[in-house]
């Protein structure tokens, strides 16, 4: 999160990393071909595409 704020400083909004944050929608999930997509509304919830092409949901929870 800090990197996004620092890296986006001074960059036009349409090119910044913050401008590319997507919410989960059927279209955004279907278009995901590699990597992962994190939900901006639900911290630590993400969908990840495995090398096989299979999509899996992940929820990372940190314990104190």
What is the secondary structure topology, with strand pairs?
Layout: H1 2-7, H2 26-31, E1 35-38, E2 45-49, E3 55-59
Strand content bin? 15-25%
Helix content: 10-25%
| Count of helix runs | 2
Spatial strand arrangement across the major sheet: 1-2-3
Order of helices and strands: HHEEE
Largest sheet: 3 strands, antiparallel
Can you tell me the overall shape?
flat
Beta strands, count? 3
Distinctive features:
64 residues, 2 helices, alpha+beta
Describe this structure in words.
The chain has 64 residues and is of the alpha+beta class. The protein has a domain at 22-64. The protein has two helices and three strands; from the N terminus they run ααβββ. A three-stranded antiparallel sheet has the order 1-2-3, with no helix packed on it. The protein is flat, with a radius of gyration of 14 Å.
Task: Provide a short characterization of the protein structure.
This protein is α+β, with helices and mostly antiparallel strands and 64 residues long. The protein contains two helices and three strands, in the order ααβββ. It has a domain at 22-64.
């Amino acid at each position: 999160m800090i990197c996004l704020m620092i890296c986006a400083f001074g960059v036009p909004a349409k090119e910044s990393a913050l401008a590319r944050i997507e919410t989960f929608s059927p279209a955004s999930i279907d278009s995901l071909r590699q990597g992962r997509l994190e939900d901006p509304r639900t911290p630590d919830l993400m969908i990840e595409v495995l090398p096989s092409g299979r999509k899996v949901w992940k929820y990372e929870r940190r314990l104190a």
